[in-house]
Every structure is written in C-alpha cells, then in structure tokens.
Design brief:
Helix content: 25-40%
Shape: globular
CATH topology: Rossmann fold
Order of helices and strands: HHEHEHEEHEHHEE
Number of helices: 7
Structural class: alpha/beta
CATH architecture: 3-Layer(aba) Sandwich
Strand order of the largest sheet: 3-2-1-4-5-7-6
Strand content: 25-35%
C-alpha cells in the first residue's frame, strides 16, 4: 500500500487501530526511564501518545498525512500539558529519520510490514537514529502467523520472523537483547483467537 492507499483507509474510519498501546510496546517500554523516542510508521499514534503519557518526548512519523493529522487531533484530546512533548510529522520510515542520527534513546517499529529490502532500510534508519546505549524495539506480524496464527497480512513477503529481523540487522551496530515469537490474543465474533507476533529488542552499541 502506498501513502494514498493508507490515506483512504484512515479517512474511511474514525479509528483504524486501537486507542490503547500495543501490549508488547507497553510491556517493554513501560519499565524504562523516559527519554527521547522516535516512533516510525506510527499510524494514528496510539503508541506515541501512550509514550508521552509515560513521560517520553516523542517524534512520531507516518507517510500518511491523514494518519498524522488524526494523531495530532487525538494527542490534543489526550495529552493536555504534555502535548508539547509530541512532534507528529509526515515522513517515510525507509528514509532518514526526523531529528537526524543518534538523536534518540529509543526507536520503535511496530507493525511496519514491508518487503524485505524496504524493511531493512527502515531498520537501518531506526538504528542510525538511536544513540549508543539506546534501544530499537521491533514488533511485527510473524511469518509463522500465516500457518499457525490468526489475522494480519496474508502476503508472506511483508511478514518477518525473529531470525529474519536479526538477519536484517547483520552488519549494524546492535546486539539482540530479546528475540522471539509472542502470542497475542485477539477477540473476534467467534471467540478469542491467537495471533503470532515477532518481538525483537536490539541494543545500540557504541
């Protein structure tokens, strides 16, 4: 999907994604000391807004202008005096990260599902955006989800298992702190189903 496709999708719904943060984002980032973070392909900002509520200063980007405008509106409704700690910008996650190199303590890539080469470009940009000692958090629909899980994209080319994330990080100045497949319960009209997500945390080396 290109930016216009996503614009159309966001424009057709009041809220495409949940207003709550992703469960793994909350689990991993919740215990961290707040600093400066960048959320790439942030959509309507559910994770970015939550991070600001936890005390982070966040730059959140998406290549859909409609999503970014919605993020700004949701942030204005929820953040109050904290609104100044969120910067929402239109940008492509595969290009240089807003803010420049080594500007952040944390980068988040949550459900950025792209073909392998584009995804590696986004991962490289995320790593470059984080200063030594910082973290890159990657959460995505797993390749295994096609056969063993529920929901998510049906195109294997845009899915990735943990080992594929680590392969994409080869040669970059990072070391894995966490890497695995995690189960995510999904409520449906037919009862609860289970999706399989890839969750990887990378530590930016000096």
């Amino acid at each position: 999907m290109d930016a216009k496709d996503w614009d159309d999708r966001y424009a057709a719904h009041d809220l495409v994604w949940s207003a709550e943060p992703n469960r793994f984002v909350a689990e991993i980032i919740g215990p961290l000391t707040p600093g400066h973070a960048v959320d790439l392909a942030a959509g309507e900002g559910r994770n970015a807004i939550w991070m600001v509520e936890q005390g982070w200063v966040v730059t959140a980007s998406d290549y859909s202008p409609v999503a970014v405008e919605r993020m700004r509106s949701l942030a204005a409704d929820r953040l109050g005096d904290g609104l100044g700690r969120l910067t929402a910008v239109v940008a492509d996650a595969t290009q240089s990260t807003p803010g420049g190199p080594a500007a952040y303590d944390l980068a988040v890539l949550c459900y950025l599902q792209l073909p392998a080469e584009q995804w590696r470009q986004a991962l490289r940009s995320a790593v470059e955006a984080v200063r030594p000692g910082g973290l890159v958090v990657v959460i995505g629909h797993a390749g295994r989800n096609l056969a063993e899980g529920w929901g998510g994209p049906s195109d294997r080319a845009v899915l990735y298992d943990p080992e594929e994330v680590l392969d994409g990080a080869e040669g970059l100045p990072v070391a894995p702190l966490q890497s695995g497949i995690r189960e995510r319960p999904v409520p449906t009209d037919d009862g609860e189903r289970v999706a399989l997500d890839t969750v990887v945390v990378l530590h930016r080396e000096g």
